[in-house]
């Protein structure tokens, strides 16, 4: 219809005016505008809680869960003192690989270590290995983990979990 064509024409005209206006800006102005937009985007990401896996961005609670996905090596979470942290990792013990805690902050205590088998009992199917830790002292506590075979010298994968323990 004629109204639709007028609308399209005005939209194209306004878009091309914006593009032309941007092209007329001095290079320094364009650079300043780009920098401003990048800073704004970064601020919005931080304010919106865009965080890595295992990082809630919310105030600490008495329980936290970190899922190690082998896509990265550093994880972070927070928990209140006397709270628990559950660290979950995919594991395939039938291949000889298991997760081990190589070192752990003195303000943490290992409460349990479990393996949850896969729902299907196929040979080579992986399950989930879980460490549950109690947070006993305030401060940043670090857990170094390794996915390895006990008879091999090299770790197949390593991960570090930083746990910010705060007073209730």
Automatic annotation (TrEMBL):
One of its GO terms (molecular function) is cysteine-type endopeptidase inhibitor activity. Keywords: Protease inhibitor, Thiol protease inhibitor. Residues 81-161 form the Proteinase inhibitor I42 chagasin domain. Gene3D superfamilies: 2.60.40.2020. Pfam families: Inhibitor_I42. Coiled coil: none annotated. It comes from the Eukaryota. InterPro entries: Chagasin-like_sf, Cys_protease_inhibitor_I42, Prot_inh_I42_chagasin. PANTHER family: AMOEBIASIN-1, INHIBITOR OF CYSTEINE PEPTIDASE. This is Proteinase inhibitor I42 chagasin domain-containing protein. It comes from Guillardia theta. The lineage of its organism: Eukaryota, Cryptophyceae, Pyrenomonadales, Geminigeraceae, Guillardia.
């Amino acid at each position: 219809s004629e109204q639709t064509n007028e609308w399209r024409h005005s939209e194209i005209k306004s878009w091309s005016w914006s593009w032309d206006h941007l092209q007329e800006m001095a290079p320094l102005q364009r650079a300043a505008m780009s920098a401003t937009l990048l800073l704004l985007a970064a601020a919005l990401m931080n304010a919106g809680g865009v965080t890595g896996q295992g990082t809630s961005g919310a105030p600490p609670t008495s329980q936290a869960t970190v899922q190690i996905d082998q896509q990265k090596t550093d994880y972070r979470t927070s928990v209140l003192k006397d709270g628990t942290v559950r660290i979950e990792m995919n594991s395939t013990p039938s291949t000889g690989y298991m997760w081990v805690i190589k070192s752990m902050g003195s303000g943490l205590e290992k409460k349990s270590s479990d393996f949850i088998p896969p729902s299907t009992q196929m040979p080579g199917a992986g399950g989930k290995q879980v460490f549950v830790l109690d947070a006993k002292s305030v401060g940043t506590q670090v857990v170094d983990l390794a996915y390895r075979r006990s008879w091999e010298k090299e770790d197949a994968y390593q991960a570090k979990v930083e746990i910010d323990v705060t007073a209730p």
